[in-house]
Amino acid sequence: MKYYDCHTYLDMQIEDVVAIRNVQISEDSALGKYQSIGIHPWNVQADFETELAILEEKITSDAIIAVGECGLDRLHFETFELQKKVFQQQITFANKYQKPLIVHCVKAFSECLQLLSLAKVPVIIHGVNNKWDSIAAFVDRGYFLSFGAAILKVNSISRKILPQIPIHQLLLETDDTDISIQSIYQTAASLLTIDSEAFNLQIESNFHKIFQI
């Protein structure tokens, strides 16, 4: 049985785990069989045009199967207007090269939705740990919602809203933690009261709808 980790920062080659490793544009992207690459909203700088040019060149690599992590983060308010420009351009790249988007969205849901209306590729909202009112519109648009280690915490919002997500729009991730994807699978299946084998097969099906690997 395989496990699918749609977003990780760690280079862990583990048998039976298919993981998409997020790399930065400054990194040597040789590590990891499958990778995503993007400009994180925390890393947006005034000279973003130079970084976008580097990013587009790297996106063309066959090893890059998704654009991101990219998006908007209102907590970094000092660069918010620049974030929108950089995010929009990354959506353009994703459309041009037909690679899915892995999206970071913090307290900028309406702005993300507005810009994502331009996307013509599958969209994954990663690290979901938000109240239903904040993410309902993403679900209605058919975007995929990715849950991570937060569901292991008994009182997390993530854990409470997981049962409201249509199972055909669900993905799982480890992000920047060293928690095993298997433990996240086990917890998610338990919370949804679904047989673990059937649950694994559903996540596998969702994954392959997005990533042509």
From TrEMBL:
What is the top-level taxon of the source organism?
A: Bacteria
Q: Which GO terms describe its cellular component?
A: cytosol
Query: What InterPro entries does the record tag this protein with?
Result: Metal_Hydrolase, TatD-like
According to the UniProt entry, the coiled-coil residues are: none
Name the Pfam families for this protein.
Answer: TatD_DNase (PF01026)
Q: Which PANTHER family match?
A: D-AMINOACYL-TRNA DEACYLASE, HYDROLASE
* Name listed for the protein in its UniProt record: TatD family deoxyribonuclease
